[in-house]
Design a protein that fits this description.
Number of helices: 2
Helix content: over 70%
Strand content: under 5%
Radius of gyration: 52 Å
Number of strands: 0
Oligomer: single chain
Structural class: mainly alpha
Distance between the termini: 152 Å
């Protein structure tokens, strides 16, 4: 019987040793749960970052569209002003040319009248 008790005590010592070893080592399930929780948190953060980037991109698209409309409007206004300015400059040159021709015609008329020549060949403006 002593031998039986000794075998039982030896088996108990082995079980006690193994139990202490298991208590010192974290269970794999807890490690996996922590890893899964960390991964889930990282995925949620990445998902939030992607959502923020998408919203930022949408806002940027709206801003660029508004800018494009403004540039088009300003270009149209600039082109209209350029056409009007061109017409005004053309009309001013035409008016200046007409005045110059009338002045020359008047000068020629006065010269002829001073010299005693008739104005029959020069048409009136």
């Amino acid at each position: 019987m002593d031998e039986r008790i000794r075998n039982i005590e030896q088996d108990m010592a082995v079980v006690h040793h193994r139990l202490n070893t298991l208590e010192d080592t974290p269970p794999r399930v807890n490690t996996l749960e922590n890893t899964v929780t960390q991964l889930r948190t990282q995925v949620e953060n990445i998902s939030q970052n992607i959502t923020d980037i998408k919203e930022s991109g949408d806002q940027l698209h709206k801003d660029v569209t508004g800018l494009r409309i403004e540039v088009r409007r300003l270009f149209t206004i600039g082109a209209t002003v350029a056409v009007i300015a061109s017409l005004i400059v053309g009309a001013a040159k035409l008016y200046e040319t007409t005045l110059s021709i009338q002045d020359k015609h008047q000068s020629a008329k006065e010269l002829r009248s001073e010299n005693g020549q008739s104005d029959s060949g020069i048409p009136e403006p």
